[in-house]
Structure formats: structure tokens, C-alpha cells
Amino acid sequence: MRLPRFNYLGPDTLEDTLDLLAFHRDDAKILAGGTDLLVRMKKGLLKPNVLISLKALKDLSYIHEEDGYIKIGARTPLADITASDLIQKKACALFQACEKIGAITMQHYRGTIGGNILQDNRCHHYNQSDFHRSGRQPCHKDGGKICYARDEADRCNSTCQSDGATALMALGAEITLARKGGERTVDLANFYTTDGIMPFAMESHELLKEIIIPVKGAQSVYKRLAYRSAIDYPIVCAGVLLKPSKSQKNKIEDVRIVVGAMSRSPLFLVQESSSLKGKSLTDVDAFKHAADSSMTSASTFAVHHVGATLEHRCEMVSQMVFQALKEAAQKAIDVKG
Ligand SMILES: Cc1cc2nc3c(=O)[nH]c(=O)nc-3n(C[C@H](O)[C@H](O)[C@H](O)COP(=O)(O)OP(=O)(O)OC[C@H]3O[C@@H](n4cnc5c(N)ncnc54)[C@H](O)[C@@H]3O)c2cc1C
Ligand code: SF4
After folding, report:
1. Cα 28 from Cα 26, distance rounded (Å)
2. Does 262 map to a domain?
3. Any idea what the CATH number is for the domain that residue 336 is in?
């Protein structure tokens, strides 16, 4: 498989990058590490005329803490995240997620956190070569009018398999999107559309600039299931953030449960999360109940198209959430002593 022809632009400053994005709009794509983009281009899933590289924008690679928030530049390599004591200590779910992404070479030399969040949704009917797809009618995401994953579907249900996005949503992260002449900050949980063709509520001339994680004195855990420990995308994953109460000994003040790889976007399960407020840190039955309920909720979105049977993936939601809750609660108990 060969890359289609394209023009390569390598701006030196953020301002120049935003100017180029404003000029080329839908004709251009941002190139960060290229580990998602170039694979899709080789398969003929995408044919941008222009690639705007972030290679020279070293200023967009950083991790620091400021006024109760961890701030991460979008171009930060995944390897910097897994090497960061700050992330391991205060945003552990993100550390655990990035550790599992792809393979070491991908993390260390290429993949960025921005590209991880913005990688396209996947579906094994669609993520195939031109040759494979040419043998049948195109599906919605390929410009056609049918879906091979769900009968009669009027839209694309391709799945977000980003480990980073699931962990970040559990951590309550926001993202800053810059464009020529301005920027906006959005809650990651509100960043997604309901259509797998264009999964992100983002304009083509916008650039993901920064990820902002609130530091809440909470414990976070990320769990994922994949066929192999390296190279494979998650077939189901879960991120949990658990904040123990300051005033009531051994009680939970707040929880966020997010399930990934089951839908068009990571799923922040509000009801299941609220059900644990005020419960004891050792209430394993409550964790089990929230985990089973998460499985029921997440199962309504899933379709069979990312490997493993749908039944197995649905069952594993409960396991992932339960384990993450138990581990986060134990960490909270250990810290309080
Ligand atoms: C074999 C293999 C295994 C993989 N396994 C996993 C896995 O287990 N888990 C997982 O989560 N991912 C996995 N990936 C996907 C991917 O490699 C990673 O998500 C990686 O972090 C993507 O980052 P990148 O910098 O290479 O993105 P790129 O490929 O450069 O970009 C991805 C997309 O984001 C856009 N983009 C990137 N940065 C910006 C920005 N700052 N602003 C606007 N748009 C931007 C690009 O235009 C492109 O559309 C895998 C990929 C491969 C090939
Ligand atoms: S979910 Fe359906 S429309 Fe979307 S990529 Fe898969 S087959 Fe195509």
C-alpha cells in the first residue's frame, strides 16, 4: 500500500499553522506522529491534498501543573506522558492508558496525545484496503448509504478506540481548540457528535492545542482488554475517577465512570457514577451493582465490528468497571491510611 500524493507543509510557529489551516480548511489535515493518519491514507480512506506537520512546533510539547490543573500540550509524545511522575501521581488513569497504547516504538518515537484523542473511529468493515472495500457497495463512512455493522442503520456507528480519550474523560479533562484569531475550551465529554463519520464537534480549521486536567485529590484507574498486550486496540476499556470524602471517614464523595471502545465516543455514565456518591469505600456490592448497570447502559450502543463477539465485550464492561472501582477505592483507603 502506497501513500497518495500530497503537499507537505512544515510551519515553524503556531500562528503560521493556524493561518495555513484557515487557508486550506477541508483540503488539509494536521500531521502529528502520523501513526493513525498515514495508515488511513495508505488504505485510501483519506486523501488530503495538504499535510500540515506539527514537527517544528516544539512549544506544543509540555506537561506542567498550574493553579490546580495539569496542562499537556497536544503535540506531547505518549512517551513523555508515561515518563512523567506528575501524571503517574496525579492523573494515574492517563498514565495507565498511555502505557498500553500500541507498542513501545509507537509511544516513544511517534504517537502524540493530541493524535490519540483525534484518531478516527474504527470499524473492521471500513478499516480495510481500497482493494478489499472495492468488492462491495460503500458504507455510510465510505460515502455510501448502507451499514454492514448494523442492519438498517441510518448513520455510522464506528467505534472510538482511543485509550487516551477514555482515561481523560474519566479525569474530567477539557481541551482547548485554537483557530486563527481565537480559541475555545470544551469539556471532553461534550466534544463528540452522534455520527461516526465525523465523530468530533470540531471545525477543519481548528487545532487541538492543549489538554487540561483538574487535580481533585481523587484516585483514578484505567483498565482495558485487548487480544494481545501490545499493538492491539482495546476491545473494551474503562476509566474511573474516585474522590473520597474529606468530612466522612471511608465514604465516597464523587465518582466518574467512563466506558470506552463500546460506542462512537467514550461513554460518561452519569447515573452509574452518581449511584456511588455517599457509599462506603469498601462497599463491594455497590461497585458490582454500578458495574453491572454500566454494562447494561454501554451495551445499548455497541455493534459488532471491532473484533471479539459483542456478547463478550458487553460482559467485560462489567469486569473492567468493577476492577477499576475496587482498585481506585483501595488506593483511596491506602492514601488515608
Ligand atoms: C498498529 C497500531 C496499533 C495502535 N494501537 C492503539 C491503541 O492500542 N490504543 C490507541 O488509543 N491507539 C492506538 N493506535 C492509534 C494511534 O497510533 C495512536 O492513537 C497515536 O497516539 C496517534 O497519535 P499520532 O500523533 O500518531 O496521530 P496522527 O496520526 O498524526 O493524527 C491522528 C489524527 O488526529 C489529527 N491531529 C493530530 N494532532 C492534531 C492536533 N493537534 N490538532 C488537530 N488535529 C490533530 C490528525 O489530522 C489525524 O486526523 C494504534 C495504531 C496502530 C497503527
Ligand atoms: S459502522 Fe457501518 S457505516 Fe460505520 S464504518 Fe462500520 S460499516 Fe461503515
Report:
1. 5
2. yes
3. 3.30.390.50
Q: Does residue 330 belong to any structural domain of this protein?
A: yes
Residue-number span of the structural domain to which 333 is assigned: 219-337
Answer yes or no: is 122 within a domain: no
Which tens digit of pLDDT belongs to each residue from 157-181? 999 999 999 999 999 999 999 999 9
Is residue 42 domain-resident?
A: no
**List of residues 6+ apart from 14 with CB closer than 8 A:** 57, 59, 60, 178, 207, 209
Number of domains in the chain: 1
| Ligand 1 site, residue 106, Cβ cutoff 6 A | yes
Q: What percent of the chain has pLDDT over 70?
A: 99
Which residue's alpha carbon is nearest to atom 31 within ligand 1? 115
Q: pTM value?
A: 0.97
E-assigned strand segments in the chain:
7-9, 28-31, 50-53, 63-66, 69-73, 174-179, 182-187, 207-214, 219-225, 236-244, 252-260, 267-268
> For the chain, what is the mean pLDDT?
95
Identify the residue whose C-alpha is closest to ligand 1 atom 15. 36
Q: Which ligand is nearest to the CA of 140?
A: 2
